[in-house]
Structure formats: C-alpha cells, structure tokens
Amino acid sequence: MGDFKISTLNLTKKYSNSFQLFLMVHSHRVFRGFFIMLLLFHMIMLLVPWIEIKIPAWPILKIIFAIGAYLWPFPTFDMLSEENLYLRQILMKTLEISVIMLYTIDLLPKIFIWRQNVLWKIVNIVILSQMMFLLPVSIIAYDKVALPTDTMKLRIFSISFCFVIVCEILSIREQKSLRFLQINQRQQEKQRQIKQKTQEFSWCEIVKHDSPNNCWIVIKDKIYDVTSFLQYHPGGNMILDGAGGDCTALWYSYHPSILTKQEPPQQYMIGKVRDYQQYYSYDDDFYQNIKEEVEQMIPRNKWQNHWILFLKGFLCLTGYLACLYYYINYCTLLSAILLGFFAAQADVNIMHDGNHYAFSSNKTLSFLAGYVLDLSFSTSVVYRRSHNFGHHSCVNHLELDRAFDTTFPYIRLHPLQQRFWYHKYQHLYIWIIYTFVNFTDVFGTFDEMQWFSNYPCRRGYVSKLQVFLQIIVKILWISLTLIYPSIKFSYKIAFGMWFVYNAVHSYNYALYFSVNHWTLEAGVVDNQNINQTNWGKLQIQNSSNFALDSFIWTHLSGGLNFQIEHHLFPQFAHTRLKEIQNIIKEKAKQANIKYFEFPSFLNALISHYKLLKILGSQDKI
To answer: Which residues form a coiled coil (predicted)?
Structure first.
C-alpha cells in the first residue's frame, strides 16, 4: 500500500493534469460498462444480417460525411449516395470509431503509464495497431461480401476479437488509478474523525462481519474494516475467504516484501482483538529476507503467467473433458481409470494454482482456474477456506490445521491425539480410506460450508449463489457419472465404474498431499510447544519435498514435490518453483533449519507408512 502511494504520487508529479484526468476516466465503471455494451453491439451487428435502410441526405450532412471520410486515417466505405444516407453503414462506422477510440483509451495507460517492461509495451502497441487496421477492414469486408459462407471467417474473427477485449476489460488495473488514492484519503480522514481511540472487540463480534457489505479481517492483533477496499483489492474477492477471521499469514505470504515490512493501511484499522493469541512470530527477518531475495531474482510480475503452466492446463482440461465424454458414453474400465486420472491432474495442475492465485496475474483467469475443481464436481470455495486458511496458515498445527480435524479419529497423525485400539492397524487400512477421499470431498461440501476455518466461531462468507451452484454441480455429478450410465448400460456396470473413477481420482490426489506433511521427517506443533516460532521457519520444518530432480513427478504432482517452496510462496506458479529452491535451501542451512527432501516418491511414501505404524502403536514418537 505504501509503495502504491509513493508510485502514484510520483506519477502525478511526472505527468500533466491531462494524464491524471485520463486515468480517472479509464478507471470509471460507466466507461467500462459502456465499452462492454459497444462490444456486444459489435457482435450482434456482425452476426445478424441487417436490412439496408436509406434516409434522405441533407446537404449539410453530405459535407460533414465528406470531411469525415477525408480526415479518417483508416480504410472506410461510402455511407451516402447522391440522394440518400445508408443507415446500416452509418451505424457500423459509428461503432467502428467508438470501439477504436475506447480501446485506445484502454491500452494507452498500459503503454505509457503502467510500470511494465519494454517488450510488454511493444506487444500492446502491436495489438492496438492491428486492431485499428483490422476492425475497419473487417467491417468493409462484411459490407461487400454477399454470400453468408464467405463471411464465416470474418464472424469468427469478430467474436474472438470481442471476447479478447471483454477479457481485457475484466483484467485488474483499477487499483492503480488516482481514484483509488482519493478514496483512501477520504477513508483515512473519516477514520480520524470517528475513531479517536482504539476499541477492543471479541471474536464473537468480529465473525459477524463476514460479508461483502460488512467485511472485517484481523492481521496480528488488529482489526481492519476493508469493506470499501474490496473492489480495489489486487487479489479480488480473496479477502472474503478470510472475512471475519485471522488473515495474518495470508498478509505476509501473499503480499510484496515492501508492504509486509510495514503495517497494513492504518486508515482501515478500527480496533484490536480482545485476548488475542498469536502463535507465530512474524518479526524475525528470516522469511522477509527470503522474500526479498526471491523478488530480486524473479520480479513478482513474472511469478505467474508461465507458458508451461498454461500449456499443461490446456492439456489437462482437454484430457479431462474428453475422458468425461468417453466415460459417459462407454462406461468401460479404461474410461473410468482415465477419467479419475485426468480429474486429479486437472485438480493439481490447474485448480491448485488457481485457488492460490498462482495460475495467472489476471485475477479473473486465476479465479476461473480455481473453479476447475467445481468442474470436477467438488467446490473451490470450500477448498480455499480449508486449504489456504485452514492448512497453509497453520501447517501441522494440531489445534488449527484442518487436516487433523478431517482425518481423526479414523487416522492418528499427531502424538497428542488420543490413540484408540484400531489405530495399530491404520498403516494397513489407510490404503482403503484413501480410496474414499474424493467421496468425502464431494459429499461433505455443504457440511464444510458451515465450518470453514479453525477458529471455533469463524464462519466466512458464502453467498446464496455459491450454495445454489453447488446444488447444480452435485446434481450434474450424480446425473452424468451415475444415473445416465445406469440408464444407458446397467446399474451394476455404472456403480462399479463410478467407484473405480472416484477411487483413482482419490489416490492420484490424496497421496501427493499425504507425503508432504505426514512423514517421519516433517515436524508437528501444538499450542503448548509453538512458542512464537517464526512462521516462515515453521513452513520449512513441517513440510518435506520429494523427487526434486524428476521431471515426471514435478508435472504429475503439479509441483507438490516442491512443497516447502510452495508453502513459502503460494502465489508462485508451480512450474517455476524449482528456480527458487536453491535460495530457500541455502537460507535454511544458514539459519540451521531442517530442510528435508526425499530422493523419490517411493521413499516419501515409505516414510508416511512408517509414521502411521509408529503413531498407531505408541503414544509418542
């Protein structure tokens, strides 16, 4: 936030008032809404055959159109005859000029103002130039070509072009406008007038403020009302996943080091948490130094948008949809195995990065990537709450890590958990339990929506639309994978293949996560022995890597073999984690912190097996 203020103030000094006005217009919602309306109009005009309408031409109009055609620098066509005006051509020309001018306004800040590298700006200049030439040419071609079959390429181009621009509109740049700074200043002044002294609130009060219209978050022991900031947050609605809860770990792990060096924006601070318990320390420079070195090596704007990740995502999603079609129409053993495998691959390679906002710097694209989990019939909103907040924030912490709650009493994973007689067999029956992981994820959706994080009274925000969509998702899941195959083939075949598909999906998903934290080498903590441990050190001590030199395991596991690096930098595309591994390993060595990596996946799996056997037969390790 502080860095943004400085850069914005420098921008206002460097550029004239016209540029300031330019930025204000560019960020205005009415501008973007009008832009979208024009694009939809453009699509309609290119898809619908318009009937030619002629209207009488006044002499003054003829002069205006003649001058306009002379001055317009791009290809054009005649809009009037000696006696009449062609209404269709006038509408299309108006649309052409409007789209070109509006898209120019949309791109100019990216080219001349936003801080980006030269190559990135050149690409946008090329896009703008091509658009200014191709749009008039496309409209002329549409006007002259008579046969509908000859206009097919033009129509496909127009639809694709409009889709690209709509995606551009949805991309995040609003928080970089001067309007953002002005709102902050007004909010700051308002807070000064209203809050003359710090108030204290209990958790039972804080958790009530968990909606888009009333959003509080906690960072360390301070409470921030970020309701007015939500629409400008670079991470989009990610804040709502922690609404009414403790977001300290997310503040430090997702934001630039230059921001985490200082306090969050104080104009939003409204009070403190009464009897706040802070289990981890964030004051040690260990994690801060690692972040600074990684940011220096690889700028934050290059952490996502990796072409290998995009290629993997396309292949995994295509493979999953193809296998789903194959399974629905043939319901064979091979189709069930392939569907389970590709569903898991889509989860670990697309969904996991998307829900960590590591897939793309475009928040909308990452958001859609996260929703691939819903495409495989689970739920991304539950995953973000239980995984990002209930696991990453407190890894292997008995009282807080959601993983311990969802596995006990069936599996004993912590020495302080109660040991039952059947736990001495857990190293044997665990392989049966793992076949049902996907069933519990899918069928437990609505139960999880009632209790997301590990603070006993925190709820988190779930819209009615999310609940409705999950009902639709579950109906589709049962209908497509079970009911329809039962009708088309038989219920015996359908149920058998349905179980195989879910079991393969479960194994391909669960085993990657189990060998990262539930091994003899990974540490565990609890409220009694946490003792203000540095949060960054805890991520290294309580995680373990495997098969770091294996190209196959890196891509099959979606980069989960670089678990330590992923926990320290969750916003980093998994296809690039290998680039920062040496930095983290060296820093851990200098700080005398245990950094463990298994030479292979099999070694990690054996260690997981041994841990289960020991915890099942004795109270302490």
So the answer is: none
pLDDT at position 146 is 45
The overall longest dimension of the chain from CA atoms, in Å, is: 99
Q: Are strands 84-86 and 54-56 parallel, antiparallel or unpaired?
A: antiparallel
The 10s digit of each residue's pLDDT in 294-326 is 999 998 888 988 999 999 999 999 999 999 999
Calculate the alpha carbon distances from 508 to 377, 546, 553, 557 in Å.
Answer: 16, 16, 12, 8
Element (H, E) at 111: none
- Amino acid code (one letter) for 89: Q
Q: Name the CA dihedral angle for 552, 555, 560, 566, rounded to a multiple of 10 degrees.
A: 130
Cα 163-166-170 angle, rounded to 5 deg: 140
The amino acid that residue 177 corresponds to is S
How far from chain centre, in Å, is Cα 514?
23
Strand 597-598 and strand 545-546: the pairing is parallel
DSSP 1-26: -HHHHHHHHHHHHHS-HHHHHHHHHH
Helices (H), 175-266: 178-194, 203-206, 248-254, 257-260
Are residues 274 and 537 in contact, defined by beta-carbon separation less than 8 angstroms? no
Assessment of whether the complete model's pTM goes beyond 0.85: no
Q: Report the 10 Å Cβ neighbour count for 146.
A: 6
Give the model confidence (pLDDT) of 530-567 as tens digits: 766 788 888 999 999 999 999 999 999 999 999 999 99
